[in-house]
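Fold it.
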Amino acid sequence: MGVINVTPDSFSDGGENLKPEAAIKAGKAMVADGADIIDIGGESTRPGHTPIDASTEQARILPVIKALEAEKSVRISIDTYKASTARAALKAGAHIINDVWGLQRDPDMANVAAETGAPAILMHNREADDDSIDILSDVMRFLERSLKIARKAGVTEDKIMLDPGFGFGKTSKQNMIILQNLELISSLGFPILIGLSRKRFIGFYSGQTETNARLPGTLAANLLAAISGHAACIRVHDVRPHREMLDFLGAFTRGANK
């Protein structure tokens, strides 16, 4: 999954793809580099971000979704916690809802997923980090609530993917604990999306303060997630290096003579 932030203030690529033509070009390049899904967001969710209204969000993302959907070569997910934006995006050609609040912020989001039949990614989130909590217990309880909401609305289980929410209301140590314990989240019985690309905790452990310098650490972390067998999808800013890494891992796993 390649990341396209049509925003001026996202933590990594904010401003680079704010103009629709830039975002469309970036999306096409990611497809050429091997992305299976393009995740498009119109509102930054970085720490300290400024919330925007749904109309502004939709004005940013809908032209990009329509242009990339016309290519018919990639699936598109909409990164939003607003039900009205998710509905508009799906109508414009998006295929997947990626909700960073796991259906718990907008009470109508689960209904949008159920009514449209769109796959839904349910992510764990917190307003702020707290190093005194048991982060694994917190993630599990949150995701169990999200699953309850999804089921009550009629979202079928084959349409659900879970995301532990790396970097969202978590300390660097807590992020590492989650990466080391993906099998616990996998025990809920759903595929897992890994979204740790260029996150601050990668820099904390690799020593890189510059966001765009965190590719080696990101590759290492995503490789560990893939090797664990608990990563169904990897959300990244750098598609080509990850495509090559996964292709090599696949070849290694199959055996050199195959």
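Strands lie at 2-5, 37-41, 75-79, 96-99, 120-123, 160-163, 193-194, 233-234.
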